Amino acid sequence: LAKQEGRNTYRFHTQALSDAASQRLQLETRLRRALADGEFVLHYQLLIDAQTEAPIGVEALVRWQPPAEAMVPPAAFIPLAEETGLIVPLGEWVLQHACQQGRAWIDAGLPAMIIAVNLSVRQFQSGNLVDLVRRVLADSGFPADRLELELTEGMLMEDAEQTVVTLKALKDLGIRLSIDDFGTGYSSLAYLKRFPIDKLKIDQSFVRGLYDDLNDREITATIIAMSRILKLDVLAEGVETEQQLAFLRDSGCDYYQGYLFHKPEAAADVAKRLAETRRSIRMAVIPDPE
Ligand code: C2E
Ligand code: MG
Ligand code: MG
Ligand code: MG
């Protein structure tokens, strides 16, 4: 009996494994087709200036919209896209699309905003990232100094010599560089000083605990102080509450991003919001009668 049970367990196990494998394969096939069929869309989340509380830019965030199905968030397909290498053509599409959208907003009379685009380590190591960015800027006519590429700490640790060369070549194009999810990886101060980085984005896991977790408060305050010393801009991700905002304001954080201000939205909704905030900014500069 035990022998039989053992065999059944084994069979069950391999069956489960091959189900998972075939599901992955199916998803991979669907993702490839989705890219060819134009089923990916970009949403944009406003980045807020701490001084004025006005938007200074947007982060482009990819979503998958299969026809007649619910929108799929990046967490459900980016990992597989990275494993399979599909992230390279997908990332190219994201960069092109974001820069075209940015150009269209400028042409529509909106102020030239920063557009932040997430990069995958696979794109960073692809060997033609610099050429790609140069070509996309030229084709779209989007101003280089408005494009910000978001890197992660993991990218910066591998092969430091080549990394410095790539980052300098990107900076020579005139674009901006930030480190996303900062604090979750292993950046040393020496690396931060050596790499031509413009901005740190404090990971939302620290921001989440700002109200009641002493460690998160100290880590966040330290990253902000460190940014001051290294002359980097600093942004807090995932700002959801007034309490978090109050702490960040007291700590001297430069920029905010989070649901307290805006959720990621489709391009048309962002444009409407920008037109509105522009009106409210104009109203806000009328001096108080005193
Ligand atoms: P990320 O780059 O750190 O982007 C910020 C994520 O936090 C976004 O999730 C955004 O919707 C979410 N977020 C913003 N404010 C808040 C808030 O106040 N509270 C909470 N709970 N979440 C907030 P999203 O859009 O689901 O993207 C998840 C991740 O997927 C991104 O994290 C990024 O690592 C990756 N990703 C998204 N688009 C791309 C892309 O085009 N290329 C690559 N390589 N990765 C991407
Ligand atoms: Mg990001
Ligand atoms: Mg990220
Ligand atoms: Mg992040």
From TrEMBL:
It comes from the Bacteria. Signal peptide: none annotated. Residues 24-278 form the EAL domain. This is EAL domain-containing protein. It comes from Methylomonas subterranea. The chain holds residues 876 to 1165 of 1165 of the full protein.
